[in-house]
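Step 1: inspect the first sequence and its tokens.
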Amino acid sequence: MSVLSKNYTLNNGVEIPKLGLGTWFIDDADAADAVRAAVATGYRHIDTAQAYGNERGVGEGVRTCGVPREQLFVVSKVAAEHKTYESAAKSIDETLEKMGLDYLVMMIIHSPQPWVEVNQSENRYVEGNRVAWKALEDEYEAGKLKVIGGAVASTIFNR
């Protein structure tokens, strides 16, 4: 059995493929082709982020790869700078619009600190992360997300 067909089961029963295509450093103009090539190879887990600047292209690749949408585990991440409920919720809707998708399988908070402060500040933005998490919960309850989480010290916590 290929690693591309192996999954982990998350806390809420959703399965995530063990191996995914990471799209960091793939230009938006090249992202659709990269996604289509990866899916043709057998990948079913596609990862992007608001900070990568390629969500439009990744979404195009997902929509045009020839594999039914429900067979693809598509992930994006709320940018580290979104530390208010309003900005986090708006960013999730903008991601869906850019990608041309009705839902994402997973959305996580990309970093507990804004990027300009990572490892430079003691401020962990506890309240900002709480309200960003609330925005994720509300989008989850609305059916726009199937799994939510936060990346902390390379560990993904999910619902």
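Step 2: inspect the second sequence and its tokens, then contrast the two.
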Amino acid sequence: MVETRQGRTVRVGVGVGLPLVAGVGLALLLSRLLPADATGRWGLSPAVVAGVCWAGQLWYVGYGVTPGGDAVWRRLFGLANAVTIVRGALYAVVAGFVVAPPETTLAWAPALCYGGGVALDNLDGRVARTIGRETETGRRLDMAFDTFGFVAAPLVAVLWGLLPVWYLSISAARYVFRGAVWLRRVRGLPVYDRPDSDLGKYLAGVQMTFVTVALVPPVPTDLVWTLAPAVLAPSLGVFGRDYLAVSGRLPGRR
């Protein structure tokens, strides 16, 4: 009975308390740092939006953490995971600029925050492997923040006119793929393994770099729009290939 109560306490702390405190803290910090001209669109504050997104990310991760007493806090706040959490906070700040006008004096902030998160993307994994602390919690954090960043940064770029609206297809591709796989399982159809290839990871790095460059104010928007189809197509093609593989339609994948 004692272990059950302790597990519940940990789950509430990680799944509710931590996201709430972190979200409010980030919102208060940004409300002091952001100038007045960074607010106004749709009557929402970038600081509040960032705080809500930050809390949502941590809630999603905490919801899947298995209670285990003090061990869960060590898994969550290890050095490698701390780097990953900072990356998630940077992506939450980027999301806050969804409601900020493009002419804000902080127009550089989305590029700097997203670029900083991209730079930390490989660092957390290297740290985990170096100190021998690769965990399921760390993988969940990494995947959650990567997915969120792929939504937040392109959305800001589209709303600011820096990328065409159809570029958001890269943000939707992962959810469409997962939904299609889930539907196959629901229908009782077989789901095969995805191809053992690092191509998707390399293309994800290209996407992150391209979106970061697109968010940099001095970069010519016309050039970005011209290059966008060539950068987007290979990544969408990989999602298509993966679905053909998991559905058994790719030769040799059954």
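Step 3: confirm your contrast with the notes below.
Residues 163 and 225 are 6 Å apart (CA to CA). The radius of gyration is 20 Å.
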